[in-house]
Design brief:
The protein has 14 helices and 15 strands. It has about 450 residues and is α/β, with parallel strands linked by helices. It has 3 domains: about 80 residues, Membrane-bound Lytic Murein Transglycosylase D, Chain A (Roll); about 45 residues, Roll (Membrane-bound Lytic Murein Transglycosylase D, Chain A), CATH 3.10.350.10; about 300 residues, TIM Barrel (Alpha-Beta Barrel), CATH 3.20.20.80. α6 links the parallel β6 and β7. α9 runs parallel beside α10. The radius of gyration is 24 Å and the shape is globular.
Length: about 450
């Protein structure tokens, strides 16, 4: 009798919080004021995708108070109602009136600023005019309205291969260190502990760029996404400051050929973000930075240029699963203050210039800040000729590197769009087929001109 009373009391308590227990493997949840799908998924330890699929929700950002949701994979009772398959919405048009701005229009039609901008070939989302007819794509995006505030002030860091130069990094105004962790599919999360401890002992915040195995990913993507997310949850529990989910996932060097797409990556990011936040909500989650390139001319089976790849991510709802947009810039041979004049072929491509990279990424995802997880300038000075494929940087000097890094830092710091800039890199000594040492700010004679210029940039108002 006492057990029966206890069970009935528990059921009454659950119902008071909007929860009804069903048979088999579900509960019914009634949406309460202030709730969203993300918070509900965390409460029941179920993915948003599973809840959306079970309830026929096309737009994950659109639920309402009083709505009944069936939560799969929990505890259960009676046979649940059939799954409803939503009918995809169609496009409509809208004529801009005085006082309109794109984020408000996106909010009105339940879509995203980036989706409208892409559909109408708008390069600057802040520039629309009265009388302009916009084609409004179907809703379902989850980009938040407007640029949105950036959480935290701008910070600087460096990618390290060791912690041999902490004093020089501090002189440069760096408060972050970044290192890469590559998971083999079976190693425990504790493989990241050494990097975390090294950063902490030297007084730095730590960003872990975590990459897995593309062959394992290719064999069973859906299962791999979950396995990788579980690993990242273990890493998050070790209390790093930030995790970057994968790296340059738009090229076949890092992602299986034939499976490269922003939508596929968003599935991984969704699982990873939710797992990380459940384990440690304080970890900054950065989306994997695509390789900046125009090589593919769009998207092919072997790779995808970064801009269309990022658009695919935005259209797939990636902005709900990141705190910051990962971005790389490592092929510049001019001052970052320049926006034209690159002597190489295709001189007008956005990847040639720092500022057009920032503008391009901001126009696609306006609601999240940018985190440069690689920004560097290659110089052969002190090492000798560059290997094939890198000779575009033959005339860049170590002084150019020092000045341009400081200029990029100043631009980022003042932009209001960049949350974090990681210099690529501090201390590599590899100068072979991949001349990483040519990017290092610690030069072959153990000097660091960039430390002084960066420190001055960080100290300036």
């Amino acid at each position: 009798m006492r057990r029966f009373i206890l069970i009935m009391s528990l059921l009454a308590l659950l119902m008071s919080f909007g929860v009804t227990v069903l048979a088999q493997s579900e509960v019914v949840h009634v949406v309460q004021p202030g709730e969203n799908l993300f918070r509900i998924s965390l409460r029941y330890n179920v993915t948003m995708a599973a809840i959306a699929a079970r309830n026929g929700i096309y737009n994950w950002n659109l639920i309402y108070v009083g709505q009944t949701l069936y939560i799969p994979g929990t505890t259960g009772g009676q046979q649940p109602p059939p799954i409803v398959t939503p009918t995809p919405p169609t496009e409509t048009t809208y004529t801009v009136v005085r006082g309109d701005y794109l984020s408000a229009i996106a909010r009105r039609f339940n879509t995203t600023t980036s989706a409208i901008a892409q559909r109408n070939n708008i390069s600057n989302p802040n520039l629309i005019y009265p009388g302009q007819v916009l084609i409004i794509p179907p809703g379902g995006g989850i980009d938040q309205p407007g640029p949105g505030p950036i959480t935290g002030s701008f910070e600087l860091g460096g990618h390290v291969f060791s912690f041999s130069y902490p004093a020089q990094m501090r002189a440069a105004g760096m408060t972050w260190a970044k290192t890469q962790v590559r998971w083999n599919g079976s190693a425990p999360a504790s493989i990241a502990q050494g990097a975390i401890d090294a950063a902490r002992s030297n007084g730095f915040k730590i960003l872990l760029s975590v990459v897995g195995d593309r062959a394992q990913l290719a064999a069973n993507p859906t299962q791999y996404y979950q396995n990788f997310a579980n690993f990242l949850a273990g890493v998050a529990a070790l209390n790093p400051d930030a995790i970057e989910v994968w790296n340059e996932q738009n090229i076949d060097r890092e992602w299986p050929a034939g499976q490269i797409s922003g939508a596929a990556y968003t599935q991984m990011l969704s699982a990873a973000y939710q797992a990380i936040k459940r384990a440690n909500s304080n970890v900054l989650v950065i989306s994997g930075a695509p390789a900046p390139t125009g090589f593919f001319g769009g998207c092919t089976g072997s790779g995808c240029d970064d801009a269309p790849f990022l658009r695919q991510m935005a259209q797939s709802g990636a902005t709900q699963f990141m705190d910051c947009v990962g971005i790389h810039y490592n092929e510049g041979i001019l001052s970052p203050t320049r926006t034209s004049g690159d002597p190489r072929g295709n001189p007008n491509h956005y990847t040639r210039y720092y500022q057009t990279m920032v503008s391009t990424y901001t126009s696609i995802i306006s609601s999240k800040p940018l985190c440069f997880t690689e920004l560097g300038y290659l110089s052969p000075e002190g090492y000798g000729p560059l290997p094939a494929g890198f000779d575009w940087a033959a005339n860049v000097t170590a002084q150019d590197q020092a000045v341009w890094l400081a200029e990029a830092t100043t631009l980022a710091k003042r932009s209001g769009r960049v949350r974090l800039l990681i210099v690529w890199n501090v201390d590599s000594t590899e100068y072979g087929a991949d001349p990483q040492a040519g990017y290092a700010i610690i030069r072959p004679n153990n000097t660091c001109s960039a430390c002084a210029t960066l420190g001055a940039a960080m100290a300036a108002p």
